[in-house]
Automatic annotation (TrEMBL):
SUPFAM superfamilies: 2-methylcitrate dehydratase PrpD. Residues 19-265 form the MmgE/PrpD N-terminal domain. Gene3D superfamilies: 2-methylcitrate dehydratase PrpD (1.10.4100.10). Belongs to the PrpD family. This is 2-methylcitrate dehydratase.
């Protein structure tokens, strides 16, 4: 890996194109390096993971609406179109990226990477798969594109913080998806460079989508970035240019949206000929909740078994969770969002409330992607009483470990003290989720398949489940035009297209 210095340049300094970050990204994307076997294996795992969480959300309102929008846009003339997840009907690729991206993101249940910024790198897959289907690409083409999408997003996330400046994390997704599309389509460096710039320029937005009363837009935001990436590539292929330099310009993203004119970053990118392996640094979710909640669900399940008395609010004086800066201020009591303690809050808000999540997992000893968020579950009196006794605070050591670049000590958990009414104090801690590569039960192919089977049950016919799993595990051998096999069709009667809300299209 090469660490590339990035700073703001005045216009008269005339930063050469080849030294601009967007151009360096494009150069990596255009490098025809082979995909390592372990990377290819993980790509298959993440396609399975995305399919699992998309299946589970097929009839949730945001997906129903996004699907209806997509179905109003027939395949464009440049290719065969792409399939809408769950039904297989073909639409224009940018709209397939939109509908499928919302389905993947809705339950907050797929993969994650956390460093200077936050990300869900699996959000790269829907636009890449849509474009691949549209142009009749092969499984090997898709594999290379996904490896690039993950690489660029992870490298940007390692180096450039967005949330500190209240910019949403999908600002790294527009460029990474555009780069991945460039690899998939075999585009030249100049075309990818222009697409990356447009991908960034059109996907910068504020983090209000993840603050206060969190709305359904949370699921749409990465899908929008993927759709913008597809459109940016289309424009770049037609010779249209982007703002230059998009990152380093004196009126660019860094100068006015991020650290300002004195900013200094070092962005790691693979050297020429170096394999793209960043997907191996990422991790998926066992539970449908914000990633920082994963370890806390696992710890709460453990405490449920070992200290069942702590599940009764009558026995508990208070619960104090000590954790990282991010966990405390974004999904903990440090956010100062009263909605995080409201039994009538939206699912999206409860998904970002550690006090709620820890309470329910402690009482139930389990976590379910539907039942744990049900209004009747959130409103249960004993749950509300215990929930309101849970607070968080930042612990500098857990913050340090959260930001550590050493994978062996990087942590997303913390410690908890449950003070009982009789004065007894229960103490425990957890560093990483059980499913994390360094956790108690790391996810491998077996667990990805089990997650897919569990979420697809009752939604996808058994024969279709087996067909999909066979196809995706044969990804590298899928020929040109065979990528429709990666779509999963819902069983008859599961989706009622006539029930979709009406809009403009």
């Amino acid at each position: 890996m090469i660490n590339h210095p990035v700073r703001v340049y005045k216009s008269e300094e005339n930063l050469p194109r080849e030294e601009q970050l967007a151009h360096r990204i494009a150069t990596v994307a255009a490098d025809p390096v082979a995909v390592d076997a372990d990377v290819a294996d993980m790509v298959v795992n993440r396609i399975i993971d995305n399919a699992a969480v998309a299946v589970a959300s097929l009839n949730r309102p945001p997906i129903v609406a996004a699907r209806a929008q997509a179905l109003a846009h027939a395949p464009s003339s440049g290719g065969n179109g792409a399939t809408v997840f769950g039904i297989g009907e073909r639409v224009s690729p940018e709209w397939a990226a939109w509908a499928n991206g919302v389905a993947v993101r809705e339950l907050d249940y797929h993969d994650t990477f956390l460093a200077a910024e936050y990300s869900h790198p699996g959000d790269n897959i829907p636009p890449l798969l849509a474009a691949a289907q549209h142009v009749g690409a092969s499984g090997a083409d898709l594999l290379r594109g996904i490896a690039t999408g993950y690489e660029i997003q992870v490298d940007l996330v390692k180096a450039i913080c967005l949330h500190e400046h209240k910019i949403d994390h999908v600002a790294h997704l527009g460029p990474s998806a555009a780069a991945g599309l460039g690899t998939l389509l075999g585009l030249d460096v100049e075309t990818i460079f222009q697409a990356v710039g447009q991908g960034l320029h059109t996907t910068t937005a504020t983090r209000q989508s993840r603050k206060g009363e969190i709305s359904t837009w949370k699921a749409h935001a990465p899908a929008f970035a993927g759709k913008m990436a597809v459109e940016a590539v289309d424009r770049a292929m037609r010779g249209q240019t982007s703002p230059v330099p998009i990152y380093e310009g004196e009126d660019g993203v860094i100068a006015w949206m991020l650290d300002g004119p004195d900013a200094r970053y070092e962005v790691p990118l693979p050297a020429k000929g170096e394999a793209k392996r960043a997907i191996l640094d990422t991790y998926t979710k066992e539970h449908s909740a914000e990633y920082q909640a994963q370890a806390w669900i696992d710890l709460a399940r453990k405490l449920h078994r070992e200290h069942p008395e702590a599940a009764d609010p009558a026995n508990v004086s208070n619960v104090l969770i000590r954790t990282s800066h991010h966990t405390h201020y974004v999904i903990g009591s440090g956010a100062n969002d009263p909605q995080k303690y409201s039994p009538t809050a939206s699912r999206e808000t409860l998904d970002h409330s550690i006090p709620y999540i820890f309470t329910v997992a402690l009482q139930d000893g389990a976590w379910h992607h539907v039942d744990s968020y049900a209004p009747e579950r959130a409103g249960r009196p004993d749950t509300v009483e215990l929930w309101h006794k849970v607070t968080t605070e930042e612990d500098p050591e857990w913050t340090r470990r959260y930001h550590s670049l050493d994978i062996a000590e990087k942590a997303f958990g913390g410690s908890v003290e449950i003070t009982l009414a009789d004065g007894t104090v229960i103490r425990d801690e957890i560093a990483v989720a059980d499913a994390h590569p360094l956790g108690a039960r790391p996810f491998a192919r077996e667990q990805y398949i089990a997650k897919f089977r569990a979420l697809a049950g009752g939604i996808i016919d058994d024969a279709e489940i087996e067909r999909f799993l066979a196809a995706v595990q044969n990804l590298e051998q899928l020929g040109a035009g065979e990528l429709d096999a990666l779509n999963v069709a819902a069983a008859d009667g599961v989706i009622d297209l006539g029930a979709a809300p009406k809009g403009l299209f």
